[in-house]
Design a protein that fits this description.
Elements lengths: L59 H12 L2 E2 L11 H12 L12 H15 L9 E4 L1 H13 L5 E6 L5 H7 L3 E9 L7 E3 L1 H7 L4 E7 L11 H13 L3 E5 L25 E6 L12 E4 L2 H15 L4 H10 L4 H25 L2 E3 L6 E5 L8 H12 L1 E2 L1 E2 L13 E5 L4 H11 L9
Parallel strand pairs: 1-12, 3-4, 3-6, 6-7, 7-8
Antiparallel strand pairs: 2-9, 4-5, 8-9, 10-11, 11-14, 13-14
The structure holds pyridoxal-5'-phosphate.
Pyridoxal-5'-phosphate binds next to α4.
């Protein structure tokens, strides 16, 4: 598992896009039964599979959900709520199906939903967006991200990614032929510190082959909410090196302790060089609906729409109508959402600390990254395996958020988008853990 993402440069490489990747090892401790590419059983020279798929493995996060089910563990791994979605939007979905909104929507998105997105971009960001020319509705923000990267990247282009990073960005880069260039976010202190990047390191990552930078704020897995000064610095580099910012703002409304979400597109000079990605999954607790979108200047939107059309044709039509209803929920909805997650964060963190984890306090999103040094395990994989199999709690091993697994070997991530009783159940199980000195 540890080697699932594009790694360091191999020696003999054929295409520029491959230069910084090393093939993953065929097996991982948690994915031991995986067939992987099955290369050994196939005749040499004809493996049937694309080389690309050899450069990454299945999602570790989603694998952890399967592990949780296998071992009857409490799933604090994958970021999906175990509580209900708002009744109003479920009703809107039912009504759309009953009203026979059951055929393909316009490929780049149902008009009602695009109008609602444009309206909300105006309300939340103060940005005027043309719903006819600047919005593409996709199958989740996941598809919006890969469609964007496929639409803008050529082989050999570099994409700057802050790490630890949401694991999809690694495979997304490989699939789009781009080379990821990682810039570290580091916690200021080992206990509770905010994650920051080094300005010089970021500047070094930009050069003439840099096509884009991915900015995920509020951030998964760190919970960092990028500050204005940080975004301005990124903006200055984007302008200087003529680079596109692709933002993942899926946790836009999940903010704590008075932090403010700032959309890159609102900064001077960024309107023409930003693709803003968002979706329904997290804001409306409907991760299974698969509705997300990319907002971009017309020329880039045209390219994204072409890729999106041939990849998926469109997102689910009735759920797009329900999306329009969701985006019309009153402001109190969003305040309640953030407050609910603040309460869950504050409910979970003391039990993690009591069990021996050092927690990095998130300012947004719904994850807590933790330091597991106190438990004395060889690495995050063996510890996560022990947690899911013996303690009964599924987490995500930290290494899955880094291109070099060693960087995440002392970390695991907990998701707190769960009912209080689920968090309590996890806390009871984690109380059985013993730190190394007391074992
Ligand atoms: N982006 C980030 C940062 C995420 O954490 C996730 C899901 O966990 C996604 C995107 C996936 O979003 P969607 O369900 O809209 O595809």
């Amino acid at each position: 598992m540890a080697d699932r993402l594009p790694r360091k440069a191999g020696k003999v490489e054929k295409s520029p896009a491959r230069k910084s990747f090393r093939r993953p090892t065929p097996k991982s401790p948690l994915l031991a039964k995986d067939a992987r590419n099955g290369a050994s059983s196939l005749p040499r020279g004809k493996l049937f599979l694309s080389d690309k798929v050899g450069y990454f493995t299945e999602s570790v996060i989603r694998e952890m959900t399967r592990q949780a089910m296998l071992y009857g563990a409490v799933n604090l791994a994958q970021g999906f709520p175990d509580f209900s979605a708002p009744a109003e939007i479920k009703d809107a979905a039912r009504q759309a199906i009953a009203a026979d909104v059951n055929q393909y929507a316009i490929t780049w998105g149902a008009k009602n939903l695009r109008n609602a997105i444009a309206r909300q971009m105006g309300v939340w960001q103060g940005i005027t967006v043309d719903p006819e020319k600047e919005i593409t509705v996709c199958c989740g923000s996941t598809e919006a991200m890969i469609s964007t990267l496929l639409a803008v990247c050529n082989a050999g282009d570099e994409v700057v990614i802050f790490e630890p990073f949401y694991e999809n960005y690694g495979p997304d880069s490989v699939l789009s032929g781009a080379k990821p260039k990682f810039v570290k976010l580091r916690p200021l202190t080992t206990d509770g510190g905010e994650w920051m990047f080094d300005e010089k390191e970021l500047r070094r990552a930009f050069h003439k082959h840099t096509k884009a930078i991915i900015v995920n704020t509020p951030n998964n897995p760190t919970g960092k909410v990028f500050r204005r000064a940080e975004l301005e610095l990124i903006r200055d580099l984007c302008v200087e090196f003529n680079v596109l910012a692709i933002t993942d703002e899926i946790y836009e409304h999940i903010l704590f302790d008075g932090t403010e979400h700032i959309s890159m597109v609102t900064l001077d000079g960024m309107r023409e060089r930003t693709v803003t990605i968002n979706g329904m999954s997290k804001t409306y607790s409907v991760t299974g609906w698969r509705v997300g979108w990319a907002v971009a200047p017309e020329k880039i939107t045209n390219a994204i729409r072409k890729v999106h059309d041939f990849l998926t044709v469109g997102a689910p039509a009735p759920l797009q109508e329900a999306g329009a209803a969701a985006l019309s929920l009153p402001p109190e909805y969003y305040a309640k959402l953030a407050e609910g997650y603040r309460a869950r964060r504050d409910h979970l963190m003391p039990s993690l600390t009591a069990a021996g984890f050092k927690c990095f306090r998130p300012s947004g999103a719904y994850y807590v990254m933790t330091d597991i040094s106190a438990f004395g395990y060889k690495d995050d994989i063996s510890f996560a395996k022990y947690l899911v199999q013996e303690i009964g709690v599924a987490t995500v091993p930290g290494s899955s958020f880094y291109h070099d697994p060693r960087d995440g070997a002392r970390q695991v991530r907990f998701a707190f988008c769960k009912k209080t009783q689920t968090l309590d159940d996890a806390a009871r199980r984690l109380a059985k853990l013993r730190v190394a000195s007391t074992r």
